[in-house]
Each structure stands twice: as C-alpha cells, then as structure tokens.
Amino acid sequence: MQTTNIEHEIRTFLTETFLSGRSESLKDEAPLLGDVIDSAGVIELVVFIQERFSISIDDDEVTTDNLGSVKNVVAFVEKKLHSKG
Prior knowledge:
By secondary structure, the protein is mostly helical. It has helices spanning 3-18, 39-53, 64-67, 70-84. The chain is globular and about 35 Å long.
C-alpha cells in the first residue's frame, strides 16, 4: 500500500472520528494525544489500524514514537506492513 493511501486512510479516520470533519486542525507533526485524541482515542486508533491494515500492534508499541502524530502513525504502519510482507 502506498504512503499516500495509508496517510489518507488515517487522516480520514481521525477527522471523522475525533474532529467532526474539521481536517484543518490535523497537522502532520502536531501531537495527536491531548490535541486530537485522548487515551480512549488511542485505543480506537489502535483498533482501527489493526483492522484496516490487518496488522497486529503489541502493547509495547503503543507509544508516542509510533502514534504521537499523523506522520509517526503513517511511518509506523508502513514499517509494520513492510515487516509483515
């Protein structure tokens, strides 16, 4: 799957689920936690990623390095897909 497709899927999910369709507040490197999602939102994001991209996310992978921003989430999903394939 291409980076642009992964990013589009993640942005669409975050915008529709947490931002009531207001995508202008969703910046590439802006922190997601606190600004866009709360701790329960992190769980929703993890479930979405696992189901949408058919990958498994371990508890120790749920970090701000992996899920802290749109840019980080896209890179994390790409890495997981690459190691899976």
